[in-house]
Design goal:
This protein is of the alpha+beta class. It has three helices and twelve strands. β4 and β5 form a beta hairpin.
Amino acid sequence: MDDRQFRNAMGKFATGVNVITTEVDGDVHGMTANAFMSVSLDPKLVVISIGENASMLEKIKKSKKYAVNILSKNQKELSMIFAGQIKENRDVSFERLADLPVIKGASTQISCEVVNEHVEGDHTLFIGRVVDLQLQECSDPLLFYKGKYSSLERSQVVL
Ligand code: FAD
């Protein structure tokens, strides 16, 4: 099986889009990620998966905490900024939740402390204990499917 076939197969799993944020010595770093899952209700745990070449990897290892920002459908540009799909530097303003920077207008913000990490192949899984979260009830999510951004209304594919 080649990499393309594997990627195509995984791309058939429609997901939301998150920006993971963390902070080291006052510097905020963000990265777009869709490898995210709820793990446990008691205690409340989630997991993210970070590639070995992502600069986010060392940052979370240092800070031992991260926030998951579930993007709203009108935040495609933010996803592109934090995925490096928009190259030029953009000023992004952050709010705070439980001592972490979080994305303004995200449909949900979840602040976590790292309780475990597992290296699996070329990614590291960070298990996060949820310390606080904030929801915006009335916002539809940004979606990612077959390598493209989308929204809940299928006719409104946005890329
Ligand atoms: P960099 O390449 O250093 O940063 C990424 C971009 O964010 C840069 O352009 C940088 O300028 C900008 N940026 C960072 N911090 C700030 C700030 N404070 N203010 C303004 N701009 C800032 N990779 C994974 O490992 N796991 C995943 O689950 C995953 N899911 C993805 C899902 C989608 C839909 C997409 C499009 C990509 C996904 N990626 C995933 C790939 C990942 O987003 C990119 O490889 C990313 O560029 C890696 O980021 P980095 O930590 O190396 O940071």
